[in-house]
Amino acid sequence: MPELTDHLKPMVIISLYTGIRRGDLFGLTWADVDLGHKVMTLRPEEGKPGKINHVNLNEVAFKAFSDWRALMKDNGLVFPSPKTGKRLDNISKAWASLMKLAKIENFRWHDMRHDFASRLVMKGVDLNTVRELLGHSDMKMTLRYAHLAPEAKARAVALLDE
Questions:
Q1: CA dihedral defined by 54, 123, 121, 119, rounded to 10 degrees?
Q2: What local confidence, expressed as pLDDT, does residue 81 receive?
Q3: What are the Cα distances from residue 30, in Å, to 66, 69, 74, 140?
Q4: What is the pLDDT of residues 23-42, one digit of tens each?
Q5: 29 SS3 class
Q6: Domains and CATH numbers, the chain
Q7: Segment 47-56, tens digit of pLDDT
């Protein structure tokens, strides 16, 4: 099985290009990744309210999953612990080492989720679609990204000119 450092690259790429939460990534199984349709299914954690969320994979995320799949023995989990083969529960040491090596300060794993949402909004994706991709049940959480698309209001009123 590849070493933990090998886990980090596909985990980071998938996080940056899907907005997946760290806990969801740790629990992701190959049964939840449909490479044929380029869709990842996120299920609510056991005992937590929520709904199933289907996230389409862009080419970068699809390639990361495909390349990782080719390296892995199927034990069900996409990213099993290299020590136990069971569900990962912590990658703090590896993350801290990576951040130190890259000379990046004050960057948390969850910041990749914010980056995903921010990039979508800055590319003109509507907030409701961003909400759905992030799996937010309430628009309030997603509205914190609204300031990143000030031109959206200008585009909206310009539609009336036609």
A1: 80
A2: 87
A3: 11, 9, 8, 32
A4: 999 999 999 999 999 999 99
A5: strand
A6: 1-105 (1.10.443.10), 110-162 (no CATH)
A7: 455 788 899 9
